[in-house]
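Tokens help. Our protein:
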Amino acid sequence: MNEQLHFADSGEAADLAAFLGRLVHYDRAAAVRLQAQAGGGALAVFGRPPSFDVLAVRTVRLAAHLSAPLDLTVSAGELLESVDEGERAGAVVPAAVTGPPWAGVLPPRGGWTPVPGLPGPEAMAKALAAAVAEFRARDEALPPQHRTRSERDRIGREIWSRTLGDTELPLRAVHAAQSLGFLRPVRSTVPPAPTPAGAFAPVALFASGGWLRLRTPYGSVATRRPGGLGTLLVRPV
């Protein structure tokens, strides 16, 4: 019998469903790796949206600690189908699948240190909008004989490989964060400190070994630092 997960509330279930839905939108055969420690109160869900060359991480709070560790790779679509966003706020862990190569190489769990120089979320959103506009303009300017997939991919790699601020973080990591719903206006808070309308949730950048991690309240995006493999966490899947 497959294990039943119980989330802290329906909001956690809805956020997980939204994350899985976006992964499946990009890849109907998407897989996710699930990890949770015995006695821990959170489930980590790792996914890799195609084209972005990053790992996305969504952490889900659990209503009860697991009695045994959980570590396996499953179908994102099957997990999404099992998510109950109602009062039960849970999901059934599907049967394990053969994991894609990325599922065996995850960022380190610890050793993350803050990295300065990252622009604020509003500036990051403007940089994304400018990059999208530039890509469209350059694509439209291509002569018909050059409007090929390889040429469009070349333009995309050039644009999305640019770094942000005084950091090594490529723009594609921010693009992935926005596309997955991680970079968005913060949810309203209760008085006496209401959040201004349209204000973005805070973001922060961390590094550990050869990895960079862009963290937001809604999820994280991890990517390799240029020129280094860094510390790899390899486990059977």
User: Anything to note?
Assistant: The radius of gyration is 19 Å.
